[in-house]
């Protein structure tokens, strides 16, 4: 499905999701912190950063605050989200570029910027079908400098229905706890159904995607964090 036909092209839907991201996304802050830690540990000196499906720039913002990036390119299918990202990052005095295109369009572009030390993505790539994920991972490999890294924060599906059912239960528990703390009342079952029923959500298993990274040429591939369906994984060029 093309981005402009998805729910994420709806500005109101996207903004509502971002407003409630701390409820919907299990350990969102911890996952962003771990990406920060990864950058500091594995990249020597300021890095050139590419953020795919950047949304309002929340992940890039965390990396720039930590001083781990010398330049940043943000890609998103939503012009509204990129405008928000530009506003969020306006106080950082470093080269920044904001590219409004879908992942499918990006993969086809022959002159897309390259030479990145780090490519990151958060809760975006699962919108692609399996073959398009593989094509994107191949593209990312080509865009990276040798020795550069790709780190993906995303959702995956479990290898069996019984494990998937458990993952949904621990997700519900997380959301209920966060809602109680924030004074929010929204049926968690409805959130689960929306995630499962939206046609643009096309998660694959973790094993499937680690295999895609291997086929693309990545080394030192691993899962760096996992909490039910929420995970961080990646590899090195």
Keywords:
single chain; alpha/beta; Rossmann fold; 10 helices; 7 strands
Quick take:
This protein has 237 residues and is α/β, with parallel strands linked by helices. It contains ten helices and seven strands.
Q: How large, in whole angstroms, is the Cα Rg?
A: 17 Å
The low-confidence runs, each spanning 5 or more residues with pLDDT under 50, are none
Distance between the termini: 29 Å
Average pLDDT metric = 91
Quick one: CATH class?
Answer: Alpha Beta
SSE order? HHHEHEHEHEHEHHHEE
Fold-level CATH name: Rossmann fold
Strand order of the largest sheet: 3-2-1-4-5-7-6
Explain the layout of strands and helices:
Layout (H helix, E strand, L loop, with lengths): L10 H9 L1 H4 L3 H15 L4 E6 L5 H8 L3 E8 L2 H10 L7 E5 L2 H6 L7 E7 L7 H14 E12 L5 H22 L5 H10 L8 H11 L2 E9 L2 E7 L1
Helix pairs in contact: 7-10
3D architecture notes:
The two termini are about 30 Å apart. Helix 7 crosses helix 10. The chain is an alpha/beta fold and about 240 residues long. Helix content is about 45%, strand content about 25%. It has a single domain, classed as 3-Layer(aba) Sandwich (Rossmann fold), CATH 3.40.50.150.
